[in-house]
Every structure is written in C-alpha cells, then in structure tokens.
Amino acid sequence: MSGPKENDWLEDILRQEEPYINDNGFTARVLATLPKRKRRDWLRTAVIAGMSALGFVVGLILLPGAHFVVHSVVELSRATTLTSLPLIPALTVVGIFWAVFAFVASES
Q1: Largest CA distance in the chain
Q2: What is the number of structural domains in the chain?
Q3: Per-residue pLDDT tens for 26-70?
Q4: What is the torsional sign of CA 41, 42, 45, 51?
Q5: Residue 24 sits in which domain range?
Q6: Is residue 2 situated within a structural domain?
Q7: d(CA 99, CA 49)
Q8: Is residue 1 part of a domain?
Q9: What is the 3-state secondary structure (H, E, C) of the chain?
Q10: Is 0.90 topped by the overall pTM?
C-alpha cells in the first residue's frame, strides 16, 4: 500500500503561495488588446437544428418503427378526413422539433 508522502515539498509550497501572481497589470493589458469575440448564435442554432433533422432522418431509415411513421404520414396526406391515428407521428415530429428550438432559444 502506498500512503501519503510525508515530504511533498511542492504541494506545501503551492498551498502556502498566493493563488494569483502579481504581474503589474500585464494580464489586463493583454486581454484589453485582444479582439472582441464574434457571437454566432445563428450558427449554433443551425448546427443543432441540422443535426436534429439528420438524426431524425437516420432514425427513420434505420429503426424498425420507421415504417409505421412513414406509412402514417402517407395515410395522413391521402386522407379525406382527419383521424387520430395518423396524427400521432406527425404531432410527435412537430413536438420534437419544437423542443429542439425551445432548447436552443433558452441557451442563447
């Protein structure tokens, strides 16, 4: 078994020293000369929405329940009257995209 080292001189020095080393304002001057960071909120929104759409399409292709979703959307487009069964996948898709956009809006 290894126990704590009794003569850990580096840890003792780091614990005794001040957490900030005085640099006579050097850090502040360097930070003041840096260019302002450009905010690209639209890019973040586009990436999250695009990846969500891509994940949805990949899920439709790979998952076994995709046939039901595709069939329901086709039936919904052909329907002369609205029934509740084909509306379930459509409302689910709308709900997912609404949740993604709500999340992105709350983050910015």
Answers
A1: 84
A2: 1
A3: 988 998 999 887 777 778 778 888 888 888 888 777 877 777 777
A4: negative
A5: 9-107
A6: no
A7: 10
A8: no
A9: CCCCCCCCHHHHHHHHCCCCCCCCCHHHHHHHHCCCCCCCHHHHHHHHHHHHHHHHHHHHHHCCCHHHHHHHHHHHHHCCCCCHHHHHHHHHHHHHHHHHHHHHHHHC
A10: no
